[in-house]
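Whiteboard transcription, Tuesday session. T.W. wrote the C-alpha cells on the left side:
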C-alpha cells in the first residue's frame, strides 16, 4: 500500500479524487502544493477548489479561461481538468488534475510567433506579386532604353561617317531614319502608362512606330502567360522595324495539347541568313524558359518566332 501511495505522490501531475459529496478521498503531494498556492491552508472540497480557480490569488493568473490554463509562480503553466469516473461498485468520483504544460505553451508561443512572421512574409510576397507587373515593366523599359541608346549611338557614328566620307543623300537619310525611330521609341518608353492591358499597349506602341500588330486566335487570359506573349510581340515589333523594314506583325495564338502556342511573323524582308539572337531575343528566351516554356526561331523561308507555354489551372 505504501508503494502505491509513493507512486501516486510521484506522478508528474497534481491529482485528486472527490467522492459524490465533493470531499477529498485521495490526493497526491503535487496537488497539495498547488492547493496551498491557490488557497491558504489548501482546499478540502471540490467546491473550494472550483471557487479558488474562479477567483485565484494575485500570484496565479488565468491565461485561457476556455482551456483552463493558469500561470503559477515560477512561470509554470498548468492546465486544470475534471473527469467523472466510476469504480467497480458503481461509486461515482470526480477526478481533478493539474498538468504542467509549460513546454507545450512555450512551443505554441513560438509557433504563433513563427506564424506571424510567415503571415508578414506572405503579405510582403503578395505586395511584391501585386507590384510585379510594374517591376517587370520597369525592367523592360530599362532594357529597351539600353537598346535604343545603342541604336542612337550607332546612328550618330553612321551619320558622322557618312558626312565625312561624302556619302549619298540616300545613305544620310537612312542613318537619320534609324536615329529618328530610336528617339521616338525612347520617347514612348518614357511615357508608358501604368495601367493598361499589356497586349493592347504593345499594339499602340507599335502603331506609333508605324507598325500594325494583327492578332488572331485565343490569347491567354492568365496574366503571366499573356505577359510573356506580349513581350514576344514587342520584341518582334522592334526587330521588324530595325532589321526587316516591315510595317506589319502577325501574331496568332492557339491552344494545342494543353499548351498555349504563339506564332509571330512579319511582312518585312526575310532574314539574309540564320537569325542570331541578340540581347532582346536572348532575354526573351530566358524569360520564357524560366516559366517552363520553349522558344523557337525559323529563319527560312521567312522569319517566324514560336513560343510554347504550358497551361495552368485550366486557364486560357
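and on the right, the sequence the group agreed on:
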Amino acid at each position: 500500500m505504501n508503494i502505491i501511495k509513493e507512486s501516486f505522490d510521484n506522478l508528474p501531475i497534481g491529482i485528486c479524487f472527490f467522492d459524490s459529496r465533493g470531499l477529498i478521498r485521495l490526493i497526491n503531494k503535487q496537488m497539495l502544493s498547488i492547493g496551498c498556492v491557490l488557497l491558504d491552508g489548501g482546499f478540502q472540497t471540490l467546491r473550494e477548489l472550483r471557487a479558488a480557480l474562479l477567483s485565484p490569488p494575485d500570484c496565479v493568473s488565468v491565461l485561457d479561461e476556455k482551456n483552463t490554463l493558469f500561470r503559477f509562480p515560477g512561470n509554470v503553466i498548468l492546465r486544470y481538468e475534471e473527469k467523472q469516473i466510476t469504480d467497480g461498485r458503481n461509486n461515482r468520483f470526480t477526478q481533478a488534475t493539474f498538468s504542467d504544460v509549460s513546454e507545450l505553451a512555450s512551443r505554441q508561443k513560438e509557433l504563433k510567433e513563427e506564424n506571424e512572421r510567415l503571415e508578414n512574409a506572405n503579405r510582403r510576397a503578395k505586395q511584391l506579386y501585386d507590384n510585379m507587373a510594374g517591376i517587370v515593366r520597369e525592367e523592360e523599359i530599362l532594357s529597351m532604353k539600353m537598346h535604343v541608346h545603342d541604336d542612337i549611338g550607332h546612328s550618330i557614328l553612321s551619320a558622322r561617317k557618312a558626312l565625312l566620307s561624302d556619302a549619298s543623300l540616300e545613305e544620310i537619310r537612312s542613318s537619320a531614319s534609324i536615329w529618328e525611330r530610336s528617339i521616338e521609341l525612347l520617347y514612348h518608353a518614357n511615357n508608358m502608362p501604368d495601367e493598361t492591358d499589356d497586349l493592347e499597349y504593345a499594339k499602340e506602341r507599335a502603331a506609333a512606330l508605324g507598325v500594325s500588330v494583327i492578332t488572331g486566335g485565343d490569347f491567354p487570359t492568365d496574366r503571366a502567360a499573356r505577359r510573356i506573349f506580349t513581350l514576344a510581340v514587342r520584341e518582334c515589333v522592334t526587330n521588324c522595324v530595325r532589321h526587316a523594314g516591315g510595317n506589319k506583325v502577325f501574331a496568332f495564338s492557339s491552344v494545342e495539347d494543353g499548351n498555349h502556342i504563339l506564332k509571330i511573323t512579319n511582312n518585312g524582308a526575310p532574314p539574309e541568313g540564320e537569325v542570331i539572337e541578340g540581347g532582346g531575343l536572348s532575354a526573351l528566351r530566358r524569360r520564357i524558359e524560366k516559366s517552363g516554356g520553349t522558344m523557337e526561331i525559323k529563319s527560312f523561308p521567312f522569319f517566324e518566332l514560336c513560343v510554347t507555354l504550358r497551361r495552368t489551372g485550366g486557364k486560357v
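Someone added at the bottom: The first strand starts at residue 14 and ends at 18.
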